[in-house]
Amino acid sequence: MAIRQLSVFLENRAGRLEDVLNLLKEEQINIISLSLADTSDYGMLRLLVNDPEKGREVLKRDGFSATLNQIVAVTLPHQVGALQQVIHTLYQSGINVEYMYALCTRTDEAAIAIKPSDSEKAEKVLREAGAHFFEEGDVF
């Protein structure tokens, strides 16, 4: 149930984000969801796109450091404590959350993209806990 995420390392300077977005636009690669984190020197752009392989190839061709990573996308009911329960399940199983961000989907359900330290184990324990997952076809 893992989803492939495109991760792009960016120098923290004017125009680099636009360069990435222009390349994706020119190649007709649609951005579904994204997260951008930065420090004073660099940024990490994480994207869910409709064609992750092509996105990586296009960006690498133009000199960007781009990789594909596996994330887990979990639906969340709109209720207090829903996210805490997912995180607690992972914590109880010894799984670290490396990062996460809200996920845009084509449904009315809330969703979160999680990069766990062990994707296979995370999927297993969350499934046993009754979690519902998104697959690439669900978000694209």
What order do the strands of the largest sheet run in, or round the barrel if closed? 2-3-1-4-6-5
Alpha carbon gyration radius: 16 Å
Poorly predicted runs: none
Shape: elongated
Largest sheet, in brief, is: 6 strands, antiparallel
CATH class of the largest domain, named Alpha Beta
CATH architect. name of the largest domain: 2-Layer Sandwich
The count of strands amounts to 6
Termini gap: 14 Å
Mean pLDDT across every amino acid position? 89
**How many structural domains does the protein architecture include?**
2
SSE string: EHEEHEHEEHH
Can you tell me the CATH superfamily of the largest domain? VC0802-like
The helix/strand class is: alpha+beta
Assembly context of the chains? single chain
| Total helical segments | 5
The CATH topology of the largest domain is what? VC0802-like
- Portion of residues in beta strands equals 35-45%
Helix content: 25-40%
Which key phrases capture this entry?
single chain, 140 residues, alpha+beta, VC0802-like, 2 domains, six-stranded antiparallel β-sheet, 5 helices, elongated
Your description of this structure?
With 140 residues, the chain is α+β, with helices and mostly antiparallel strands. It has two domains: 3-69, VC0802-like; 71-135, VC0802-like, CATH 3.30.2130.10. Helices cover 33% and strands 36% of the residues. It has five helices and six strands, in the order βαββαβαββαα. It has helices at residues 16-26, 52-61, 82-92, 119-128, 136-139; strands spanning 3-11, 31-38, 42-49, 65-76, 97-102, 110-116. The longest helix has 11 residues, at 16-26. The mean pLDDT is 89.
